[in-house]
Specification:
The complex is a heterodimer of chains A (about 500) and B (about 500). Chain A has about 500 residues and is mostly helical. Chain A has one domain. In chain A, about 75% of the residues lie in helices and about 0% in strands. The longest helix of chain A is centred in the middle third of the chain and has 32 residues, at about 165-195. Chain A starts with 14 loop residues before the first helix and ends in a 6-residue tail after the last helix. The relative contact order of chain A is 0.10. Chain B is mainly alpha-helical and about 500 residues long. Chain B starts with a helix and ends in a 7-residue tail after the last helix. The chains are: A mainly alpha (about 500), B mainly alpha (about 500). The interface between A and B is medium-sized, with 34 and 36 residues.
Chain lengths: ~500, ~500
Amino acid sequence: MIAKVAHLAMPSVHYLAIAPILALLGGSLILMFVTAMTRARVSAVVATSVTVVTAVSAFALSFFQWRDVSIHGSTTTMAHAIALDGFGVLASAAITLGVALTALVAHDWAHRAHVVGAEFHILVLASASGAMMMVQANDLIVIFLGLEILSIGLYVLVAFDRHRSGSAEAALKYFLLGGFASAIFIYGVALTYGGAGSTNLSSIAYFLAHNFILQPGVLVAGLGLMLVGFAFKVAAVPFHVWSPDVYEGAPSPVTGYMASIVKVGAFAAVLRVVFGALTTQSESWRPLVWGLVVLSTLVGAAVALVQRNIKRLLAYSSISQAGFMLLGLWSASPSGVAGTLYYVVTYLPVVIATFAVVTLVGGEGETSHDLDHYRGLARRQPLLGVALAVLLLSQAGAPFTTGFFAKFAVITSAVDGGGSWLAVIAMVAAAIGGFFYVRLVLSLYSDDEGAGVRVAVPRLTGAVIAIGSVSAVLFGVWPGPIANLAHHAYLLLP
Amino acid sequence: MHTSLWLTLLLLIPLVAAALIIGLRASDHLARVIGITAATLELALTVVVALAYRGSHAIGSGSTTVFDFTYRKVLAPSLGVAYDVGVDGISLFLLALTALVILLALVGANESRRTPAFVAWLLVLMTATIGAFATRDMLSFFLFFELTLIPSYFLIAGWGGAQRAAAALKFFVYTLFGSGFLLVGMVYIAVRHQHVFGGDLTFAMSALQQTPLSSGVATWIMIGFLVAFGIKSPIFPLHTWSPLAYAEAPIAGSMVLSALLAKLGTYGLIRFAVGLLPQSLDNVRPFVLTLAVIGILYGSALAAVSKELKRVVAYSSMAQVGFIVLGIFAGSQIATSGAVLLMFNHGVITAGLFLLIGGIERRRGTSTISALSGLQGPAPVLAALFTVVMLASIGLPGLSGFVSELLVLLGSFNAHPWWAVIATTGVIFAALYLLYAYQRVFHGEATGENASIPDATTAERWVLAPIIVLVVVLGVYPAPLLNKINPSTHAIVAHSTPQGVNR
């Protein structure tokens, strides 16, 4: 498949397909422009409002996209580099939701942490547009582009708390290791190009479906390296070592943003590449993913048991969650894709709200992250305590929360894909995980107050916490709508 | 067929009451009033449901439906999630038992610390337990089965004894660990069903029952189910969490654990292990029967040497669960009916025993046997009440325990005589350890503080009255229950062990 380049022509653009990406970039540009043109600092209210309005309009655009997909089916645009399919629409909608929630939490945080200006919001919008690019990419180069836009924004966001050395240290660590991961990923892209003759996912899938590769070494190596790159981004064991440090060092709203949006972007991309384009090579990548699942679920849950710092605990918990999300990929089936998509989409509001609570309890200068600071929280502040309990129980996979159905969906797809034993291992990990979540929940209700103090709950952050916990219960009792959306959110490929 | 609204009400009333208590920030008194009202209403409704229940009595073809009050609405087709309710003869009386035990716990074993939260958790537990019993969908069952963990965990950890945190965690982790196997096994059957028959994923029991499984696969799933339900019941050797949890839990917690949650385990064994996996029964039966018999003997032996009354009852429960499991796996309709009846009777009796122990604890501040003696002197009525409930537990003819144990032993003797013979010795042991404990606590010289304890109060007498009535009436005349239980156990046995229908 060698394209004949007769003359340089602009590819046709279906603007609806990239409208949400453009919206986020546009919002970011507006803020940048305003910052540059006004003499005074942009007020926080303006920055937050622009971000939220941008995110909400991008969210609204996804309704039009969804309608377009249901009428015309999945399509590609921009020389087949961008896909418009149900999967991408749902995942981007989730990202816009994440941006809006993060902006609200960050608004209150910035006020307390004396962070002024619109830079934070500019970076959030820009990096989220990278995540959306990954979600809709139909070309390895676009995925890389998205990954870099996402990551570079995040490196800066992690370092945003300039008063705290931990923040800069985390950023440096994340930057160095992230740089390595990107390099490994792009090397994998190069090898895949060598093995399959294209960087376009559709072309790769087409090529592999119509040709039998006698010596797939180069392709398998490329595939493996790309998988390593993704595994780094989602912090799957054994590529997770950066995450507890970075989660701990980053400002808490940024940690919530990382834990949610990076996962949506990276999982969407990994599903497109590994399951979508390289589905014929599943014999090569399924054992690798199997290993990632087993290690991530078990190590994440087991190491979380001994953590004393809430952010490190949540980092390990998120590693374990990533293992579950990979379970859907391992299944290599449409129901697995739906399961992983359901998982990341429902996990997003929950994890952002959890870190919103962490932001509040952590206090000025992020000094109160010890588990002792959470003792008796629900006694001091019943509503905040109940909300955090619900959020934690949802992550533990308690019944009648979205977390349960997320785990249930990926477990079902794994069993469907012949992985009953893998499912058993994952459930054992879930039982270990249940242990530390519920222990933490119990300490919220402890009579002994520990080192905790009453914390003020600003209105916007409170709203985010409420959205997260209510969605966890509402869609846990009534999983139909999101499950059906995820089920009908078909991938362009295969 | 009756309308399913009754069951929906049963699920909603406790939840609404709990929400009221939390929402109104109810005082201790108001919380109790709301809780007791809701539980009374619930009990009344379960009695109405039990009286109105009409299972199909057409015994003969194996496929007769015996569920009543049924309703099914699929909520998420892709995940197989459905709202599904219905009761049959097996779950019918367990609903009433749930309402009764929680009501008695609220009235008789109330906690004075943080009463509103205590009442609310008990009410949530009521919905969870009723939800698990009153469904024909395995995923629904699983959700409610898991949900019971959260309130019971908080009840133990919030109101328990000195080692409550350890007890609660041990209980939680053991059970959660078992549930993993249950979930995967259940999903396997459903996925297999979807592969064979097509359509959406479904967890309806009637559908899962049709799933063709090889005996090898069924055995693996059965082992998973046995682990999950065996931990909850508890069956030897998965019982190690239970003595600590029973002893450290508040009285209401012990009542709920032994009278209700243990029944969830044995109920799961009948409904899902035996009901869904008949292919595996031949492989696992000798193994399970042996474990059941070991449980009877081992529980009895430990009960005999326990130094604390709650532990005596905890181990005696383990022995009783051994009888129930023996009845369930004997492959005999008589034994299965006996097991179902025993589930109800044991629930009532053990709730009574824990209430009485709670009474002793309140008076003396301890339930350690060596600290108690001669209580009969200052408290003759208390002693009399204890005697009746204990004798029922021993299986004295004329009291409720006897009928059910007799049916279990009779049925299993027909099918598997050797296990039945050994199990019968458990009845003697029960007499031994309970009478021995009774003798040490109530007989002899009342020394020190023991001499001055007050006798049973009017309130205590009223709380125990329904238990005494049930124990006596069902001991003499169990037919009303058995008539409704039999068609359902017939259906299960006819499906799982056809030759067991006539024995």
